[in-house]
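can u pls check wat happens w/ zinc ion
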Amino acid sequence: MPHELPKAYEPGAIEKRWADYWIQEKLFSVPTPPPGETRPVFTLLLPPPNVTGRLHMGHMLNQTQMDIIVRWHRMRGFITLWLPGTDHAGIATQMMVEKQLEKEGKKRREMGREKFMERVWEWKREYGGAILDQMKRLGASVDWDREYFTMDDNLSHAVREVFVRLYEEGLIYRGNYIVNWCPWHETAISDLEVKHEEVAGKLWEIRYPVVGSSQFITVATTRPETMLGDTAIAVNPKDERYTHLHGKKVLLPLMNREIPIITDELAQPEFGTGAVKVTPAHDPNDFEAGKRHNLPEINVMDEHAHMNQNAGAYAGLDRFEARKRVLHDLREQGFLVAEKDYTLSIGKCDRCGTIIEPRLSEQWFIKIKPLADRAREAVETDEITIVPENYRTIYLNWMNNIHDWCVSRQLWWGHRIPAWTCGSCKEVIVARETPSKCPKCDGSKLEQVPDVLDTWFSSGLLPFTTLGWPEKTRDQAVFYPTTLLITAYEILFFWVARMIMFGCHFMQGHEQDGAIKKASGWANKKNDSVPFREVYIHALVRDAERQKMSKTKGNVVDPLDVIERFGTDATRFTLASMAAPGTDIAFNESRTEGYRAFANKIWNAARFMFMNVDRVEPGLRPGDGRGVRPYAGVAGFRAVALEDRWILSRFNRVTANVNEALATYRFHEAANSIYDFFWGEFCDWYLELIKPRLNIEGTDKSAAKIACTNLVNLFDASLRLLHPVMPFITEEIWQAIYDEKPTLKSIALAPYPQADEKQVDLASETGMAILQDLVVNIRNLRAELKVEPKTKVSIEVFAHESEIRAMVEHNRGAVERLANVEKITFVGRSLAKLAGSRSTARFDVHVIYERKIDVVSECARLKKELDRLEKGIGSGLRQLGNEQFLAKAPQTVVDNLRKQQQELAVLKEKTVSKLKELGCN
Ligand SMILES: [Zn+2]
Ligand SMILES: [Zn+2]
């Protein structure tokens, strides 16, 4: 017995059931294909969400697009691997656990590193799976057997190997760097964890005496205490006010140090006095300027933001106390010129609210140029394609201006740097295994460097480490380079660029299995070290008013909430239908509501089909095995009537469109053409047209059987077409189509429809268009004449061409039923002048109904119609007059346009004469 569909479409229950089923049956698990495999391969790495993450609209869009592309490839016969996992997310996770500890009155440092790490792992075990559970709810067709976590043993081992190799190759070094420092947490924090606030503050102007003259240079600052660490004054090289001071020195007040006047773009002539103080150890921009001019870096604070011995008389003071004293002394000594009110932006620690202090500290760096050169080349030579193309330019610009990468973080949660310091001779040892003694002095007092690596270090390695690197594995031969990466713009540099750099470096010389590479369509690519062949950057999801979603604005839409109300399928469909490449999505719930109605429409159509199929003959549903073989078009379909030939033709054309759109990431086109076909053509017209043929009482049984079989097969094919976008409802109905359990465990494994040229039938499309036009015109006339819906009307039809008369004659029953007509009479004269009539280029139709028409509104309608026609004629003329268009457009398009022009002209003539007839002015 087939699985029956419940009366009402309730996405919640259906979706949960199939999501669980797919996982239990391991439908998307991909065992390593053995040598000799010749099928194409499609591999996609999931951008790993943070283990602390919760699903947001950005994920939802990303996951929807990935799942559509993945399901589409799988159904087209690719060995399809979608690799899921989570990122340990260093700072985010550490802070999450610290927050917990704080509530218990505990502190990380008091606990000690080992105990704290145990605690984080405990947290991870308990809560770390939440985001993946949410993904499961979305139906993401990933290989759960290959799920990874960036701190798994094998991945951590690979991270260590990479670090040591880079060090051995001279690509890792230690140096000073400015970081965002939270004096309360005593740690560096990333830019992402700094919260910026506008506050009312002060701007102080201080004058520095120029050495060997009686002149002064005045600078302005909001942090006067940092002047104790100044090592230069900068003026803009083009600023003529200061040309005479180039090469001179000033005497730093309070410290009595001589410091140079340098010329640098850091100083903006239009800003303040045009001169700025340079404090390389306490400001990131000054730090960069200091590097450019080889300035000393004088750090005047310790890790608690207290002044240190470099601050002379101010040593030991808290930074704000020091500020007061410095200002007092400057004023006293005549160096303070002014104190002004000033609105400034200050950075605070996102968690404790302490004001961030930019701080100079010793960090580990990767020498990036050699890595970046190869990564740039991979994109320049199109070994990696970036879509949309504007991101390619952005990427290349960035690669040309890249700085060394600071990879160390002062955190505990993460991959600890494999470096040890000798307590006796201070030698630094970088090694794969924990060393037992110092190679330089034989001492055994070795201590591992406390820092961990930037989270992006390990995630940058994922394309090959998840495939078994540093071992040489069969998985790498098959699945590397991965095929595609779908991700957000905001991590193009953080992540995408790093993967390209690491991939090109560590996988250099790698070759993908030749047969698989060829079958997958990459024979023209030379470079198999790249981590992926293509990158697709998706847009942002904004709110309905195109505002960026943010917590502070309170306009964040929670995808789980939308799913709860409208279902995952409808939510996925919304995002797909709005996802034109390079365009942000203004998410509007009313669209989702509309797509829920779409799902409902399909549901009701399926129930209608089952009712009829079972009534006509039990066992008419396809048995085991149908749909298993890939085939073009719709199999088992016998086109006996116009509507059959028409729907078959439309199906094949839509199928061609959808396949083409998906191949170029035009998700919106794919979704919208399926929608228009399924609802607008299949449900609204085809189902209505074949209704009488399904009715056995009215017709013979063999005709009914043909109609039922056609319906089932077309439905099956349409479900497969829709499946990648709406996986749940399609699975539910598809499973119900089969009399017995199908051989295939899921529609997800059934072949994706391919267009069959032979099933395209333009004549039937034209015929059907006229028929639809006729029905719609009669319906409109009925509405205008205010005919009761139940009242049948008689109509007259005038058509020049005999084929049209024959076609209408042949489909008389359909017109009568669909427009509630009791009698159709063909007449030999134009009906255009009659009240209650409509004219098209092909026919005139007149509804015989005894109500006087409203001349005023009829005139208004005709004028509007005339206007529309004239516009149409005008734009057609413009196109036909455009030589470029004529040169480029296919002949059929031009011919169609000419034909359309003639039709419009005929219509215009008819409308004008009717206007005259009615005496409209
Ligand atoms: Zn803090
Ligand atoms: Zn030593």
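The longest strand covers residues 194-209.
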